[in-house]
Specification:
The complex is a heterodimer of chains A (about 325) and B (about 325). Chain A has about 325 residues and is mainly α. Chain A contains 14 helices and no strands. In chain A, helix 5 packs across helix 9, helix 6 packs across helix 9 and helix 13 packs antiparallel against helix 14. Chain B contains 16 helices and 4 strands. In chain B, the strands form 2 sheets. Chain B has a two-stranded antiparallel sheet with strand order 1-2. Chain B has a two-stranded antiparallel ribbon with strand order 3-4. Classes of the chains: A mainly alpha (about 325), B mainly alpha (about 325).
Amino acid sequence: MADTPIDRLARATPPSLARRARGLSDRAIAWVFVTPTILLLLAINIFPLIWTVRLSFTNFAANKPNAEVKWVGLRNYTRILTDPDIWQTMQATAHFLFWTLLFQVVIGFSLAWLINRKFRGNDLLTTLIVLPMMLSPAVVGNFWTFLYEPQIGLFNYAVEFFTGIPASSFSMLSSVTLAPWSIVIVDTWMWTPFVMLICLAGLRSIPDYIYEAAEVDRASKWRQFWTMTVPMVLPFLMLAVLFRGIENFKMFDLVVQLTGGGPGSTTLLTSIELKREAFEKWRTGYSSAYAIILFVTVFGLASIYVKALNKVKER
Amino acid sequence: MSAWSVTEPSARSKGIAAVLVVLYTVITLVPLLWIIATGFKTGPDSISYPPKIIFPPSLEGYVNLFTDRTRATPEQLAAMPPPENFVDEIVQRRGEVITQPSKFGARFMNSVIIGFGSTFLSIFLGTLAAYAFSRFRVPLKDDLLFFILSTRMMPPIAVAIPIFLMFRQLGLSDTHLGMILLYTGVNISLAVWLLKGFIDEIPREYEEAALIDGYTRLQAFRKVVLPQAATGIASTAIFCLIFAWNEYAFAFLLTSGTAQTAPPFIPTIFGVGGKDWPAVAAGATLFLLPVMIFTILLRKHLLRGITFGAVRK
């Protein structure tokens, strides 16, 4: 065996150093790359969640950090679930969820279906339609209060212009019957494009040859629509409803700017109620329990929904 | 292939569709156009009824947005030197004097600092993690999407309670660093998910070829994968930036002064006597316009981000 100086040097190099010369091992790279992200997620997402669970069993108040903290067991939870006001809040949330989802699905799907006619300029129009959902809901929501002004607002003027109902005779934001609809209108205006985009992706995923085959079989357009288009877009539509449902269940910025939960508690969505309990009444323990209940509710509903979604996909 | 296709809609159905979509687009854009228009109205023009569509443009709203003013007595006004520029002229015409520049400029800068800071951090950490998730066996990999979904089920207010306590303990309340870390934490799971999708699409063979040529893993990552993923990284960055730019709930609850961003500030703009809508609209225009322009210019790359990766193309 030749024993050149280079060979001797190679043998003398410790294996760890040799590996470093070749660069980090794949395993080491994987850990170095993933660890900072995991740490951040632990600090900002997991740790606060655990802390919230802990707080929910106490009577802690964040504005009195030096007061004695007592362990109260499940009292916060039982108090919330037996409080009739909570059900009012849930009702307001349900009204908001149901109508926004319905309008957004109907309008969003129709728009997607129309845009899929592939007329000239559909690309530019799609972009313009998407604009509202890209903007800050708080800033836009704040401006909508101006549009809803009974004396001077553009919305009331448009209603008068088209229906003849005097603009100063109604106030969208301070009427008990109209306020729940005022937030539905703005949310629908803002988020219909989201449902439209996902439906459009669904429509574009249907291959042309399926329609060609149906045409050969002389299926009517109506039949094609209901037996082919709708079932094939349904998984996409359900996904859009899932995302919008979760987002609207925790809706805060838009509605807090529009109505702030009022008049009375007609638009008091769960998130706004939570903010009042946590940051105005400073009942930190109580509102932590409330947060956990909301989280479990959404989590449960979403899990059931995802199961249904998977069934539809398999079909 | 014949030129005629059964799947191509007829000219008439295309025409009807186009008319309906144009109609919807016009209606949906009215509130946004109204924001821009109101920013250029004078106070009286903005609240006249019926609403004015045609009006003499004025910079009053913008002047009010950037200044704090107070009413001046007639004697004070008479003693004042003649206006030197259009700002003084607008203010003096209404019998007011400028006391100091308003906070809007600082709030806007906070939005810029926190927005870009958190986007940079999300993309830096997110790209590394996404690469590892895409190419190596890493625990938690399959739980990633589930994790993103579940962190998004928590209302921001619920997360804000412990974050509020944590930040107070660590001295991060109302600081740029605190908000940057917070927004990064909120954005990163989705950023990793989107970036992993983009990196998955880059063929492994490219890197393997580089490794055979004597590159180390890190060199292959830097010189082969990163340039290939550039478009995906850019579109994820825009998505993160828009989220941080628009975020309201955390900013509203966790910042009050030095680190307050524009969204909680703009709704609090008041004039000398009540709500000053032209100034609010001017602030909203300056704040929303960059996003509108971004959306129009980069429409092709945004879809995947705003649909949480559901739309691939």
